[in-house]
Amino acid sequence: MADKQISLPAKLINGGIAGLIGVTCVFPIDLAKTRLQNQQNGQRMYSSLSDCLIKTIRSEGYFGMYRGAAVNLTLVTPEKAIKLAANDFFRHHLSKDGKKLTLLREMLAGCGAGTCQVIVTTPMEMLKIQLQDAGRIAAQRKLMAAQAHISSSPAAAAAEAAAEERRPTAMQLTRELLRSKGIAGLYKGLGATLLRDVPFSIVYFPLFANLNKLGQKDPNVKAPFYVSFLSGCVAGSTAAVAVNPCDVVKTRLQSLQRGVNEDTYSGILDCTKKIWQREGPTAFFKGAYCRALVIAPLFGIAQVVYFVGIAEFLLDMLPKHRA
C-alpha cells in the first residue's frame, strides 16, 4: 500500500481510540500476565491464566481484574498514538521518492517508534504493575497467615483489613515516587523497557506491513479491515512472544513490593542471572501466552482503527471554517 499521508491530529486520534478499545477488552489478561511473571518458585499463587482470573474474582471481585486499568486508559492514548504515528513518520522519511521500503529500513522505522514510545510506556507500566500485583502479594500474605494458624486472631484480621485499605492509588504512588526519587522514580526500568519495546517494534511493524500487503488487490487501495486485523494479531503475538524474556525482566525490575522470600534485583544483568540460576530458562517465558493473548487483539484492533481512519471521518464531520 502506498503510504497515504494522514494529518498528525488524525494519527494521534486514531492511535488513541485504538489503544482505549484494545485495553478495555484485554486488561484482565494483562493483569494475569503481570501476576504470573512476578511469582517466583516456592511462592506460586496461580497455576495458569484461568486459575489467576478465577482466584482474583473470588478474592477481589470482578473489578479486581481491572486494578491499574485507569492508569492504562489514561496513558495508553498518548502511548499508542506516539508508537503508530512515529512509525509512520520514520517510514515516510526513510522512503526514497515513495518507493517501497527495504526490510532494513522498515526495521529502522520500527526501532525509532519503539524508542519514542518509552517516554510514556515506562511510567505507565511502572504504576500499572504496582496496582496489578498488589492483590497477589496480599493474597500470598493471607495464605501464609492461614497456614501459620494466625488468621483466626482478631488482631491479625484487623491488620489484614487495614492493609487492604492502605492499597495505594496511582496518584498516591506517583506523588510518593516523585517525592522520594524525583522523576527518575517513574522511569525505573527504563533500560529494560527499551530492551523490550525496541525489538518488539523492529519485529512487529515490518511483519505487519508485509502481511497486510498480502491482502491488497491493488497497491494503491487499503487492504480490507479484516486483513489489517488478522495481520495485527499475527504480527503482535509473534513479536510479543519473541521479546517475552525482556518483558519478564522489566516486570520484575519495576515491581516495588515483593512477596515473602522473593528475590530483589539491582539491575538488568542481576535480574537475568538470578532468574536463570534460581528458576531456570523457562522462567523467561512466564506469561508468554497471556502476553500473546493481550497483544494480538490489542494490535489487531489498533491497526483496524488506524487504517480504517476513524479520525479522518470524525475530523471531516467538524465544521470547516474558511477565511
Task: Describe what this molecule looks like in 3D.
- With 323 residues, this protein is mainly α.
- Helices cover 73% and strands 0% of the residues.
- The protein has helices at residues 8-38, 49-60, 69-94, 103-147, 154-165, 170-181, 183-186, 190-214, 225-242, 244-254, 268-279, 288-308, 310-317.
- Helix 1 (8-38) packs antiparallel against helix 12 (288-308), helix 1 (8-38) crosses helix 13 (310-317) and helix 8 (190-214) packs antiparallel against helix 9 (225-242).
- The longest helix is centred in the middle third of the chain and has 45 residues, at 103-147.
- The radius of gyration is 21 Å and the shape is elongated.
- The mean pLDDT is 82.
Layout of secondary structure:
Blueprint: H1 8-38, H2 49-60, H3 69-94, H4 103-147, H5 154-165, H6 170-181, H7 183-186, H8 190-214, H9 225-242, H10 244-254, H11 268-279, H12 288-308, H13 310-317
Assess the beta-strand content as a share of residues.
under 5%
Q: Mean pLDDT score, rounded?
A: 82
How many strands, which pairing sense, and closed or not: the largest β-sheet?
none
Following the backbone from N to C, one meets helices and strands in this order, namely: HHHHHHHHHHHHH
Which structural class should the secondary elements be placed in? mainly alpha
**Rg, alpha carbons:** 21 Å
Number of helices: 13
The number of distinct β-strands equals 0
Shape: elongated
- Rounded to the nearest angstrom, the distance between the terminal CA atoms is 35 Å
Low-confidence stretches: none
Q: Classify the helix fraction into a percent range.
A: over 70%
